[in-house]
Amino acid sequence: MIRSRTGAAGIAALLVAGLVTASAGHPAAAASVVYEAEDATIVNGVVESNHAGFTGRGFVNSDNAVGAAVEWTVSPTAAGNKSLVFRYANGTTTSRPATITINGSTVTTLQFPGTGSWTNWMIQTVSAPLNAGANTVRATATTANGLANLDSLTD
Ligand code: GCU
Ligand code: CA
User: Fold this and answer.
1) 104 near 136, Cβ under 8 Å?
2) pLDDT (tens digit, 9 = 90+) per residue, 51-107?
3) Fewer CB under 10 Å: which end of the chain, C or N?
4) How far is 14 from 137, CA to CA, in rounded Å?
5) What separation in Å is there between the alpha carbon of 17 and the centre of ligand 2?
């Protein structure tokens, strides 16, 4: 006769019998955080809000110059590869490349192609290893056009 069992003893009996399998949970994915450009360290640029569609209080309009930069402090709880998502607008038809460095080491040169208008915001993503705790993530303009307008970085 099959009896219905309830409670821990019953579940344990089913596990032993192989009728129910238990599996360990997966670690929860770390929450992503939005780091606004206007809260970052700005090298040769200003915070503006004259082009709609930004998040937070505005965006960074860098000078049109090589070396203009925005540097964020990104602080994941665990070390590992993270997607760094840059939200930007470029109302020109010329890409505005930026060297991306993490803790001073160059990761890549990321292109920020035209987005059609200064109010049309798009993203560019790079995957890079971060330490647990504070990391500096810096985008530095490589051309005389400076950076695209930068809204935020999300990890
Ligand atoms: C325009 C635009 C700015 C932008 C600048 C540029 O002036 O209003 O937001 O940063 O062009 O070309 O860099
Ligand atoms: Ca600019």
Assistant:
1) yes
2) 999 999 999 999 999 999 999 999 999 999 999 999 999 999 999 999 999 999 999
3) N
4) 51
5) 68
Going by DSSP bridges, is the β-strand pair 41-43/122-130 parallel, antiparallel, or unpaired? unpaired
Q: How far is the CA of 18 from the centre of ligand 2 (A)?
A: 65
Tracing tokens 């890549």 back to the chain, one arrives at 108
Helix, strand, or coil here: 74? strand
- CA 147–ligand 2 middle distance (angstroms): 6
DSSP string, 80-133: EEEEEEEEEE--SSS---EEEEETTEEEEEE-----SSTT--EEEEEEEEE-SS
Q: How far apart are CA 4 and CA 141, in angstroms?
A: 69
* SS3 at position 58: coil
| pLDDT bracket for residue 8 (50, 70, 90) | low
- pLDDT (average), residues 4-24: 52
Stated pTM of the model: 0.84
Task: List, in order, residues 6 or more apart from 4 with CB less than 8 Å away.
Answer: none
The pick from 61, 95, 119 for probing ligand 1's pocket by mutation, whose C-beta has the most ligand atoms within 8 angstroms, reads: 61
* Mean pLDDT computed over every residue of the chain: 89
